[in-house]
């Protein structure tokens, strides 16, 4: 048992390069709902919470599949870095999304400017046996794992 009780996961925050592109990708390709449109946040609060002087940001919230994503586009400070690690690099993370058709989702992602990473696989053993998985990278480096669940009966796949 943990020291602190977690009630739920509030959201996942993702820093993006182009907020309009990212909102469009998630709403048009994957059917996310825009629940809080693009808006700036107070720079003093952002500086305080991030510990970075000049942390100017615009944020939008989207939601699908019972989870919200916070898309953040920082316009300051000027020395921001672009972070595009490979899937195997320490610090990398990806967002796994269960879809009804991994081929259609992959093609829609490609049509929207994403690139495929690796090849589509079918899991051959374990609790996710039969699932089809394809990784794609959005233009700013965010990696999505598009997953079709072989034995879906109203519940998400078990953790690999």
Keywords:
160 residues; alpha/beta; 2,3-Dihydroxybiphenyl 1,2-Dioxygenase, domain 1; 2 domains; four-stranded mixed sheet; 3 helices; 8 strands; globular
State the gist of this model.
The chain is an alpha/beta fold. Helices cover 18% and strands 32% of the residues.
What does this structure look like?
With 160 residues, this protein is an alpha/beta fold. It has 2 domains: 12-74, 2,3-Dihydroxybiphenyl 1,2-Dioxygenase, domain 1 (Roll); 95-148, 2,3-Dihydroxybiphenyl 1,2-Dioxygenase, domain 1 (Roll). Helix content is 18%, strand content 32%. The strands form 2 sheets. The protein has a 4-stranded mixed sheet with strand order 1-4-3-2, with helices on one face. A hairpin with a 5-residue loop joins β7 (132-137) and β8. The longest helix has 11 residues, at 19-29. The chain starts with 11 loop residues before the first strand and ends in a 12-residue tail after the last strand. The mean pLDDT is 92.
